Amino acid sequence: MRLLLRFVSKNVGVAIVQIFIVATLVFLLLRFMPGDPAVLVLGTERGADPAAVEAMRATLGLDQPLLTQYFTWFADILRLDFGQSLFNNIDVTTYLAERLPKTLELAIVAIIIGSIIGISLGIIAAVKRGGVVDMIVSSIAAAGLSFPVYVTGTVLILLLSLQLNLLPASGYTAFSEDPVAHIQKLFLPAITVALPLAASIARMTRSSMLEVLGKDFVQTLRAKGLAEKMIIFKHVLRNAIISVITVIGLELANLIGGTVLIEFLFNWPGLSSLLVESINNRNYPIIQGSIIVIAAFYILINRAVEIIYGLMDPRTR
Amino acid sequence: MARKFLHHKTFIVSFIILLPILIIALIGPWIAPNDPLEIDSTNVLKSGTSGHLLGTDEYGRDILSRLILGIRPTMLVAIGATLIAFFGGVGLGVIAGYARGFTEKMIMRAIDIVLCFPPILLALMVVGFWGSGVKNLILIIGVLYIPRFARITHSATLQVKGLEYVQSELSLGASHFRVITKAILPNIMSPLIIQISLTIAAAILLESGLSFLGLGVVPPEPSWGQMIGDARGYIYNNPMYVIWPSLCLGVTMLAINLMGDSFRDILDPRLKNKQ
């Protein structure tokens, strides 16, 4: 028990240090960027006015000594205060709170679809090794993993919404407004994200199933006359699923920032499309806030996966 | 070794696809039928006609010419970034494995910082503050992939350093440089080559992804990812506009991944049996 506690607290400690490093890096990047951020925000015309530049420097918190800035920065982050948007004085936190659930929804729905497809195909491929399903899964997985997500997404848009007119091509409708339209618009982006996930989950399921199937205890179970179905689902799958769950967890962590291309393609108003919009109009407080939130999620999920893996397989602690 | 490559079907297929792409990238400016930057407002979003084989984009620019010239920045970023990642990573890995102690700790911790971020987020962050463009892309993507090379080299250096023949070279008075180039590097060539092919694929994916978002190669210079991003608004007017660059990018990525697989099969046979 004490060992377990130490293992968990060590992982929590690592996560805190990593988030601290990320915040420091974000801080440094703004301070040491080429050119004056205040002038860049104001543009060439208003940037020529020294009073406006001074005011903008104060808004961005660049008028203090560097060390003071650094301490204020961390004090603010601990209070989850990322400042205000440069163009309308709305709190960055408000923006983040509005966009984050949409990214999480897309990522979680995609993970669920990807896991269901991936695990079932992986099991079939492993049980019927060398069979038709195995060959099809292996080759589609190889191809599916090479195509960039936005290429697959574009193909799906052309096929399902342009040719067959089955689904809306892009956009977002709130669930409370119109549940059917919400799900229709979620479907294409979620499937596009889910496909490569399914491919990598299927690969992992297949190879770890095959590894367990080769173990001696499976022979013993067969020898004692246990039904093949029982062997596969009760004994082999249970052993094989640990590494599959790890892959799913790591993929989820990747998705929090990795849905950016999909959100852009489908005009899905999530956190990473907020980041891209803010980069385009140099809204530095929002850029900083969304990077820290996305990276924090990435780090926390990674650590959680590590802890879960350690709980399920004590050898890895 | 060369024979193994010639008998490997996957390698030959990917080579046949990639060779023309590379040649086109090199001689692009001389074979492009039109000026890829020339705007023609009377011929906007046309599908294939006699003047423009693959049609025109939203500014009336020739899609075929833009596809041909669009390979260049992508290849430049892929090669440049991989070079930075390779030399940076191998250098740091060797130093860490050689120096041990404090230096080793510092290097390996510094490398861990990069791994705190999802790759595309770190790239977006640097582009967001420092601006886009080919030069920045090469630098960021290169730094992003330093850790993999460093880790491979670091662990291999530790392994090789204890071996008798390395110790004997050292005791004979061989310089560190000699030991590194003659004893350590040849031993880890296979995993490094495999990592190079993976990094090239990842760099292309990242460059085209950022360009797709409008944060990579700076317009009007064309790039496949950027063309797909631009074309996404015009799928109802000219669906072929989005299909051509998608097809080019998809096929190239597939071929590069296949080539990576064949490298892995040939250079590291243990992995093949595991799959």
Automatic annotation (TrEMBL), chain B:
It is found in: Cell membrane. Its main location: membrane. PROSITE patterns: ABC_TM1. Residues 71-260 form the ABC transmembrane type-1 domain. It is a multi-pass membrane protein. The keyword Membrane applies. InterPro entries: BP-dependent_transpt_permease, MetI-like, MetI-like_sf, OppC_N. The chain crosses the membrane at residues 12-32, 75-98, 110-130, 192-218, 238-260. It comes from the Bacteria. Keywords: Cell membrane, Membrane, Transmembrane, Transmembrane helix, Transport. Pfam families: BPD_transp_1 (PF00528), OppC_N (PF12911). Belongs to the binding-protein-dependent transport system permease family. This is ABC transporter permease. The lineage of its organism: Bacteria, Bacillati, Bacillota, Bacilli, Bacillales.
